[in-house]
Description:
Blueprint: E1 4-10, H1 14-25, E2 31-35, H2 43-46, H3 78-91, E3 98-100, E4 104-110, E5 115-120, E6 125-133, E7 155-158, E8 172-176, H4 180-192, E9 195-199, E10 206-207, H5 216-224, H6 226-249, H7 255-272, H8 276-281, E11 294-295, H9 299-303, E12 308-311, E13 315-318, E14 322-325, E15 330-332, E16 335-338, E17 353-355, H10 362-368, E18 385-387, H11 399-419, E19 424-427, H12 429-443, H13 447-450, H14 475-484, E20 490-493
Parallel strand pairs: 1-2, 1-6, 2-3, 4-17, 6-18, 7-16, 8-9, 8-16, 9-12, 10-11
Antiparallel strand pairs: 4-5, 5-6, 13-14, 14-15, 19-20
Helix pairs in contact: 1-11, 5-6, 6-7, 11-14
Bound molecules: NADP nicotinamide-adenine-dinucleotide phosphate (NAP).
Amino acid sequence: MSQIHDAVIVGAGFGGMGAAIQLRRMGYDDLLVLEREDDLGGTWHVNRYPGLAVDIPSATYSYSFEPNPHWSRLFAPGAELKAYATHVAEKYDLRHHMRFGAVVEGAEWDEARSCWEVRLADGSVERGRFLVTATGFLSQPRMPDIPGIEDFAGDVVHTTRWDDDVELEGRRIGIIGTGATAVQLIPELGRVARHLTVYQRTPIYVSPKIDGKVPGAVRGAFAKVPLTQRAARLTGTAILEVMMVAGVLHFRNLPWANAIGKAACERHLKRQVKDPELRAKLTPDYDFGCKRPTFSNTYYPTLTRPHVDLETTTIDHVDEAGIVTTDGRRADLDVLVLATGFNLWDENFPAFRIVGRDGRDLGRWWRDNRFCAYEGITVPKLPNFLSLNSPYSYSGLSYFTTIETQMAHMERLLGAMRDRDADVFEVREEANDAFLDRMTDLLGNSVFNAGSCATARSYYFNQHGEAVLLRPTSTISAHREAVRFPIDDYEFRTSKVPVA
Ligand code: NAP
């Protein structure tokens, strides 16, 4: 039998690395981090499309305990995020725990040995006292099920599998999708394409992007006086928090806050697009916040250029030469870009089969009942399991707020377990139910329930029609609960197996 690691962590992105840092801080040194890609960084390793940049101010989109004074722009380009991930892995000595190209197929709780048995695609098995899944929300690319797509004779590229060898210069490019990814990519494609056709099914709210280079003097100040960068972080976090809490979560009581966000996007559209017909096509018919809005100063102007068309007629099929819409019109293409996003609810949640105590199959249980994880991290009957990408886990807008809240939860939970000389924790079913009831009540005030989201096609909503991705509380409240949750919400026990 293979050794039993302290923890098997699945995913070497910022979530998995945060969990590894926390476990190391608590003295768990035998960690195995399994990553299906060939390097660390998660999203920032996988996504390499032209125009990729973070859409949260960089001072905020980083670990608070590892500020990076070197961001070149207010919204750093993707390559800097990947470099930051590499830096963190090196500084915190994480790389030697990582195994790349390791595709996990399933995990099962072994009650007799009080450990998780993790099966990999290569047939091997790894064991861990704890199982941490950090597999991301946006990690299973969605391929559109459009008839004939496999017949297309030109180049097809999904944004998560960007291929620099595909020639774009001077070619006829079609792009399907107008989500946050497409909004970053379209201006880049517009710069080089002979002709660009943008296939939009649902328009997105786009607000102005207050971006720019961070002057050397400011970077110097951030490096020399970290307090200055902390102040910048606090400002960024406060703005995002107000947008999220007032504009989205308290929609019922503060509709004017939501209206401010909506008006800012509408003004931006009006300023940048003079043609009323084009403007109408780009105007969302759902409330602001139902799906994630984005920022760009170059998206709308690109759509006004003479060699760029916005196509809103439904795609009927793809053939060898291009795309045919339901009105019989066709666009001949050389390159087809799929900016079609991610499959969250069918292939994720969880990303692979996870079976806990008494045969509880997490994916089946969530689907047959309701999606919930206590405080967005633990699940009844799944002992010693920490699920970082859970229902109600995403708190605020910067993913790092979520990660650090979960690190705080881990510290309190595992500390309490040790204080009791125990080595197994499990959240109580009643605590999970009470948490779900509370989140459900809070969601009632949010734009997701109180607003008009029916036409948004937002990935925030699951197959039950519930918007359970985001935690409907402030980040301050999420963090407070992570450090103060009632310890009695958990049951602790001592396994019969001596810990090696
Ligand atoms: P997305 O928001 O899910 O957008 C996918 C797009 O593809 C939508 O416009 C969707 O239309 C369209 N689509 C999917 N299947 C289609 C089909 N069969 N026919 C026609 N259209 C189809 O995905 P994304 O743009 O990749 O963004 C996902 C998330 O990633 C963002 O919300 C954001 O959180 C994150 N992101 C972050 C950054 C950053 O920080 N730098 C950058 C990019 C993305 P419908 O809306 O009609 O379904």
